[in-house]
Design brief:
By secondary structure, the chain is an alpha/beta fold. Helices cover 50% and strands 17% of the residues. It folds into 3 domains: 113 residues, ATPase, nucleotide binding domain (Nucleotidyltransferase, domain 5, 2-Layer Sandwich), CATH 3.30.420.40; 158 residues, Nucleotidyltransferase, domain 5; 140 residues, Hypothetical protein af1432 (Orthogonal Bundle), CATH 1.10.3210. Strand 12 and strand 13 form a beta hairpin.
């Protein structure tokens, strides 16, 4: 894909939604427009874990406005991610369908660790490119991310289930800010931090950096108190000022936006717990955050520096995948994809990349056990940290590994988002064929085979003479046709023999 003239990133956070649009100047993004709205999505979670109708409406009205800015941009030039609230909401998928219609682009819900990686990328690009070890902290509406890294590489990440909206809602009900509630909020945050604090301190850092809204609000309110930096002493002064007000409606602190008052006390309680548990003395505030990280990650994807490629390579090495066999299967799968003009049927323009990645990882599960190795491989992909992959993409990749042999997993297919299912069926069938023809793991020549998608079936033509010389493959093809015919979702496989000799 060639570099587009403009790219955009949208961060659907638990507290605020952010959109940035950038033009590319000498390959670097220069932001030309940005928009932020305080949606407070996390506040709308009810006792059943569902987004309320009011919160959904607020969010969709905002996204209709965002859609005006990005709807006309080409697919691949826009990256939209959902974070903690969309990770945990029971009706997240239902909301995302409506949100994607408003935006005109698909939404990726990312894991906490992937969110942390993207935050670090945005922060790193906003700071001097030096070799210092950095601790980056981002207090979001529903989660807090901690990242240790150097230059542009996050080396260690932790995503913690505590955020300014959720803590404000729980410890400061109805906006009442009492010292007892503040102490409880700090103690709760310290309890969450306890399994991580010692090891983070031991690894150490030269600079601690804060990112996103809570951190910037802390800095601006401290400056409003006549101080300059976010230090332990100045944070104590800010806490005193918050407790003196006693209620979120009375947080008329210089530098604090009105719309942030309701979630401010919870965020500052978490920040104080971080200072205490990690023994932080001072914090610099970054101008870059998740949305800037999304821009740079998007540039990597279109500029052939996709972190997902590196993730696949690392997984191959980590689990001692047979590279030669993986390449044989990948080459044939992609050849069948092209020859059948499968791209004309794909909803997702990135689908072919998932076929390639699945082929390269198809023997991943052998590191666990040869029996049911496709199940083991799918489990590893589904439950591992895969930098660069959104959860939906990770689920699609896991499905392809599960579906590559034996019974077609109809139940697993139904768990995929609806927009992936038809693509997943087509990709799985091509991967199954590529594996079948390379079952003997030798560099044997596969015959030229015309292939075509026809309505509800995949028609494959094979030279009859070649099939007679490969009776095991002929039997495998017969069994494959039977297995696919049992699935109500997979397309049928029709094998036709042709007279011409294989080239």
């Amino acid at each position: 894909m060639s570099l587009p003239e403009r790219i955009a990133a949208i961060d659907l956070g638990s507290n605020s939604f952010h959109m940035v649009i950038a033009k590319l100047v000498d390959g670097d993004p220069v932001i030309i427009d940005k928009h932020r709205e305080m949606v407070r999505l996390a506040e709308g979670l009810d006792e059943a874990g569902k987004l309320s109708e009011d919160s959904r409406e607020r969010a969709l009205v905002c996204l209709e406005r965002f859609g005006q800015g990005v709807r006309d941009l080409p697919t691949g030039a826009v990256r939209i991610v959902g974070t903690n609230t969309l990770r945990i909401a029971a009706n997240s998928l239902e909301f995302r369908v409506a949100a994607e219609q408003a935006l005109g682009h698909s939404i990726d819900v990312v894991s906490g660790r992937e969110e942390a990686r993207l935050i670090y990328l945005g922060v790193a690009h906003s700071l001097a490119d030096d070799s210092q070890q950095r601790l980056v902290i981002d207090i979001g509406g529903g989660s807090t991310e901690l990242i240790l890294g150097k230059q542009f590489e996050a080396q260690r990440v932790a995503s913690l289930f505590m955020g300014c909206v959720s803590y404000s809602k729980h410890y400061f009900p109805h906006g009442e800010i009492k010292e007892k509630g503040f102490r409880k909020a700090v103690l709760a945050a310290q309890r969450v931090l306890e399994p991580y604090a010692a090891s983070f301190r031991e690894q150490g850092w030269e600079e601690a950096v804060g990112a996103s809204g809570t951190m910037r609000a802390a800095e601006s309110t401290i400056q409003g108190l006549g101080k300059t930096r976010v230090t332990r002493k100045n944070l104590e002064l800010l806490i005193e000022a918050i407790l003196d007000r006693g209620h979120s409606d009375r947080l008329d602190l210089l530098g604090l936006r009105v719309e942030r008052r309701r979630s401010f006390a919870g965020g500052i309680a978490i920040l104080w717990a971080l200072f205490d548990s990690l023994e932080i003395d001072r914090l610099s505030i970054s101008t870059g955050a998740l949305r800037e990280g999304l821009l740079y990650d998007l540039l990597g994807r279109v500029g052939h520096e996709d972190v997902r490629e590196r993730t696949i390579d690392l997984f191959q090495k980590r689990f001692s995948v047979d590279i030669e066999q993986a390449l044989r299967v990948e080459d044939l799968a992609l050849e069948l994809f092209d020859r059948a003009e499968t791209d004309l049927l794909m909803r997702d323009p990135e689908a072919i990349r998932f076929l390639s990645w699945a082929a390269r990882l198809h023997e991943l599960g052998l590191a666990v056990h040869v029996r049911h190795f496709h199940h083991h491989g799918a489990y590893l992909v589904e439950n591992s940290d895969l930098p660069g992959f959104a959860q939906d993409g990770q689920d699609l990749l896991a499905f392809l590994l599960l579906a590559m042999r034996r019974r077609f997993p109809d139940d697993a297919l139904e768990r995929l988002p609806a927009r992936f299912r038809e693509d997943a069926i087509l990709l799985a069938m091509l991967l199954r064929l590529a594996l079948l023809f390379h079952r003997n793991r030798s560099p044997q020549t596969v015959p030229h085979m015309p292939i075509q998608w026809k309505n509800d079936r995949l028609v494959l033509q094979i030279p009859g003479a070649w099939l007679k010389e490969h009776p095991l493959t002929e039997l495998d093809l017969e069994e494959e046709g039977t297995l696919l015919a049992r699935s109500p979702f997979a397309r049928k496989l029709e094998i036709q023999t042709i007279d011409e000799a294989a080239p």
